Amino acid sequence: MNAIQAWFERIAGITQEERERLAFARELYGRPSFDPAAFEKPACWRRRTGALRWRRMA
Q1: For residues 35 and 5, what is the distance between their CA atoms, to the nearest angstrom?
Q2: d(Cα 9, Cα 13) in Å, to the nearest integer?
Q3: Left (φ > 0), alpha (ψ -120 to 50) or beta: where does 13 sit?
Q4: 3-class secondary structure, 56
Q5: DSSP for 3-29, written as a single string
Q6: What distance in Å separates the CA atoms of residue 35 and residue 37, rounded to the nearest whole number?
Q7: pLDDT at residue 23, rounded to an integer
Q8: pTM above the 0.90 mark?
Q9: Hey, is 35 helix, strand or coil?
């Protein structure tokens, strides 16, 4: 499959610089942007107790 891709790139005129840019973009934007593990706990368990105490006083 890589040989077919290499032949296509030669025929289409894709340069090494373009391949490097594409690889960099995949590396940069391919990473997950946030950690979903923080959302595994319910919101009431993630809240600080001080915030709830202030609300009760108001």
Answers
A1: 34
A2: 6
A3: left
A4: helix
A5: HHHHHHHHHHT--HHHHHHHHHHHHHH
A6: 5
A7: 93
A8: no
A9: coil
Q: How many CB atoms lie within 10 A of CB 14?
A: 14
The angle formed by the CA atoms of residues 16, 19 and 21, to the nearest 5 degrees, is: 110
Is-contact 19 9, C-beta < 8 A?
Answer: yes
**Residue 50 DSSP class:** H
The C-alpha atoms of residue 46 and residue 49 are separated, in whole angstroms, by 9
Which tokens belong to 17? 């610089």
Taking the C-alpha atoms of residue 24 and residue 7, their distance in angstroms, rounded to an integer, is 22
Kindly report the length of the chain. 58
The residue to which tokens 């032949």 are assigned:
7
Tokens of 49: 């107790």
Who wins on pLDDT, 50 or 52?
A: 50
